[in-house]
TrEMBL record:
PANTHER family: MITOCHONDRIAL 28S RIBOSOMAL PROTEIN S22, SMALL RIBOSOMAL SUBUNIT PROTEIN MS22. One of its GO terms (molecular function) is structural constituent of ribosome. GO terms for cellular component: mitochondrial small ribosomal subunit. Residues 369-379 have a biased composition (Basic residues). Residues 301-345, 357-379 are annotated as: Disordered. Pfam families: MRP-S22 (PF10245). This is 28S ribosomal protein S22, mitochondrial. Residues 301-331 have a biased composition (Basic and acidic residues). It comes from Onchocerca ochengi (Filarial nematode worm).
Amino acid sequence: MAETQQAGGSNNIDVERLFTRSDIQSLLKHLTGLNLREKLFSNRQITQPQRAHYALMTDEAYEKTVKSMEEVGKNFLQFVPVLEPRSNIPVVLASDPEIKGFDSSKYVFTDLSFGLGVQVRSVVVRETDGTLRSATPEERDRMTRVYKGHPYRPIYEPPLFKDPYLQMALDRDDHEYVLDWACHYYLPNDPVFIRLCHMIFDRTVDENKFANLYSTRHFGPFVFYLVLNNKFSPLLSHYAVEKRTEDAANLVRLIKAIFPDEVWSCQMKDADDLKVLQQYAKENTEYEAIVNDLIKAAERQKEMKTSENETSTEMKSEKGNEHTSILDKETFASPEGPLGEMAETYDVRVVRGSFESVEQMQKLDEKSHKGKKRPGNKR
């Protein structure tokens, strides 16, 4: 992602290694969120209709189903890889001027060995002047389509990726659809793909449509691009308007992770969201107004949590002080027990044991009653 490095003013950053770092991946996942109903499992256009499934569940079964759906949703949120753009400069392998002018056309040689990937497969070109060089990325893509075509991938670039059709799709809030289609058509290290993603990211910021990429697999690379190029101010303002203090604090942590500060890492290692925002407001006066709104929202949330905890402890203490009657055989069979008036109408017996043991006792009682002789039958 050379363009990103140049825009950020630092050409020494290894973008690929930085993006795959564990702490940065963790922060990006927290910022991406997990919206199951409105994003991950929302209504989508599919080629084959699927029948809806309805089921009656207990609370335990429902919780298990939601957890399994969350695991499936996390797989949908695997980030699009952030790679450096591939080089367009071919490598000269040999120069044979004695065969210059052997033909009026170039010759392309492709390794057709089984099991080789697109990037590993050797493709070389013999020029008309006798030079043998490696294939350019465009030539490699054309040969790949000939020998191993990608399903449902058109030969020519779709017009959706260029204006005015691109802007028309973004006006319809189809940001995710365009980016998914671009991931299907291009390789992640294609310079055209990288420029297209940057264009969509910039227009998303200009139009303040962060919600269109939230809880998608493109939100992590989007935030990474903004922080790396120092374009995160609108996103921080968006968090301030939405009162999302946790996301704002994680964004600040991401900034300090990408551009490390030893003093910050020592002081704010285990700090909470409120302290992180307060310290960032002191160090960056240009964001002081935005961060102050977030600090006020964080203080209100903290006060609300403390009040809720106090009320819950009071309710628990009141419940503990209430008089609770002990349930035994006598109280269970009395009208004051759970049966109420039914205890007077029916003969109530309290039996301890499993259902099978109770059935066996009832059968023994019936046999004993049948074995007894009635007094009226005596002769």
